[in-house]
Amino acid sequence: SRIVVLISGSGTNLQAIIDACNSAEYPGEVVGVISNKVDAYGLTRAEQANIAHQALSHKSFDSREDYDLALIDAIDTYQPDIVVLAGFMRILTPAFVQHYLGRLVNIHPSLLPKYQGLNTHQRAIDAGDEEHGVSVHFVTEELDGGPVILQAKVPIFKNDSADELAARVHEQEHKIYPLVVKWLCEGRLTMQHEQAVMDGNTL
Ligand code: GRF
Questions:
Q1: CATH number assigned to the domain comprising residue 35
Q2: What's the DSSP call for residue 137?
Q3: Formyl transferase N-terminal domain location, by residue (predicted)?
Q4: If we measure between CA atoms, which residue out of 94, 87, 107 comes closest to residue 179?
């Protein structure tokens, strides 16, 4: 399968997916990387991996709708089967989501439905939670609200800083995201009636 990855930052999840794709038996290939930030380090990772990449800055567009239409054009140049959001820090328009519905996934650093939005690690600490984690989900029009595919949990230790907790969560992100993308490539994982379905079973 052809995979396009959207990023805004360091791209460690992108790297994990690139690394997974480099193993002979992996059923997918990253064919393009797009960042809305020109200085995202993930673009350098794509460059080093010889993957087509480009920055498409939202700053030169007047509206979210216009940007997302340009983004669709840029993505579709690569003719992807799957579009992977990996730290892409933009809210997407309904038109964008509809265009890729069922083949668009995101990774969110919380145990959804807890802590949608930003600053998830600090919020979990402040709430006194004993565990935290990460979710990979299909993207629907509701922000961080689409059907969850896979989660990984980590403990929160006494006196954890948000950075320490984030690092613990990141390790899990790099394990579960390539796995979910693999299932999508294999056609084992689909979205039906806004539910995630794996090998015929609703998750
Ligand atoms: C990750 O924490 C991910 O869960 C969130 O954005 C971050 C991206 O990190 N959506 P990276 O750019 O993949 O290192």
A1: 3.40.50.170
A2: E
A3: 2-181
A4: 107
11 assigned ligand-binding residue: yes
pTM over 0.90: yes
Q: Give the pLDDT score at 199.
A: 97
Concatenate the DSSP letters of all residues of 75-91 into one string.
Answer: HHTT--SEEEESS---P
- Number of structural domains (the chain) is 1
Measured by CA distance, the residue closest to atom 8 of ligand 1 is 87
Query: pLDDT tier at 8 (50, 70, 90 boundaries)?
Result: very high
Dist. CA 133–CA 177, nearest whole Å: 13
Check 99, 108, 132, 137 and give the catalytic one.
Answer: 108
Instruction: State in Å: Cα 181 to ligand 1 middle.
Output: 15
pLDDT tens figures, 138-191: 999 998 999 999 999 999 999 999 999 999 999 999 999 999 999 999 999 999
